[in-house]
Amino acid sequence: MSGGVTGPSLKARALRLLAQREHSRAELERKLRPHETEPGTLAQALDGLEARGFISETRVADSVLHRRADKLGTARVRGELQAKGLSEAVVDEAVQRLRETELARAQAVWAKRFGQAPADVAERARQMRFLAARGFAPEAIRRVVPRVGGADPDV
Q: What is the DSSP letter of 119?
């Protein structure tokens, strides 16, 4: 009988993580690095998974957009994509798609959270900060949050 129990292989661990949600190669490397017993085995396992299409930056970006775009502005989503270690080309392409809907998404988030014009300047500032913290562009925020007194939003 052999002395040690080794546990699941790096490939099995990676597949388990990928079954839960899309992961970028950089995320998998970070999560699996502590389990690598021989140098190079992690890169080899990830190379094999990438060659078979199990790891895809485009799918990771699409997944993030699907889960987060309805709640967050372009700047926050860009940050999340970059944190996942995606290539700049993939991040830029995803961000370009988001920019087209920034105003509508900001309007939906504002309506869900507040739904009515601010009563005073302090409340308007609070509503604007709320949207800014979620990564919406200043121009979209100014257009979405109505001026005090129920006037039309800034255009």
A: S
